[in-house]
């Protein structure tokens, strides 16, 4: 114990870990954290996404909702793009335009259907 008395807590921790846990090659795998439940920003935004946010949603509870709200605020929301491939089944998908579609005028000067590129008779 005399040899441990003059060590600060961090050096003592390193010494004990090296002496008692990391004895053989490959023992560092014990110290690796579990990454199976890690979530990226994209996962958080996808889980908390809403097509429309209300004004009272500014006071969100969690950081996940705040991140999704900040992403929503950055979208170009003047026009949306529709997927009408299943309109006979009463299913219409809508999404906001991305920057490339804003530059080309999709939804504003070109038809807002996902597959259509007609620009006359809008």
Report on the architecture of this protein:
The protein has 122 residues and is an alpha+beta fold. It is built from five helices and two strands. The protein has helices spanning 2-5, 9-20, 41-47, 63-73, 99-104; strands spanning 76-83, 93-97. It has a two-stranded antiparallel sheet. Helix 3 (41-47) crosses helix 4 (63-73). The chain is elongated and about 90 Å long. The N and C termini lie far apart (85 Å).
What attributes characterize this protein structure?
single chain; 122 residues; alpha+beta; 11% strand; elongated
What order do the helices and strands come in, and which of them pair?
Blueprint: H1 2-5, H2 9-20, H3 41-47, H4 63-73, E1 76-83, E2 93-97, H5 99-104
Antiparallel strand pairs: 1-2
């Amino acid at each position: 114990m005399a040899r441990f008395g003059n060590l600060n807590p961090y050096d003592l921790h390193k010494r004990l870990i090296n002496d008692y846990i990391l004895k053989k090659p490959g023992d560092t795998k014990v110290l690796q954290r579990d990454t199976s439940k890690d979530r990226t920003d994209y996962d958080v935004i996808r889980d908390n996404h809403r097509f429309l946010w209300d004004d009272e949603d500014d006071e969100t509870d969690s950081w996940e909702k705040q991140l999704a709200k900040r992403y929503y605020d950055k979208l170009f929301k003047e026009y949306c793009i529709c997927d009408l491939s299943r309109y006979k089944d009463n299913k219409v998908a809508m999404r906001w335009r991305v920057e490339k579609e804003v530059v080309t005028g999709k939804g504003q000067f070109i038809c807002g259907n996902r597959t259509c590129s007609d620009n006359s008779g809008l």
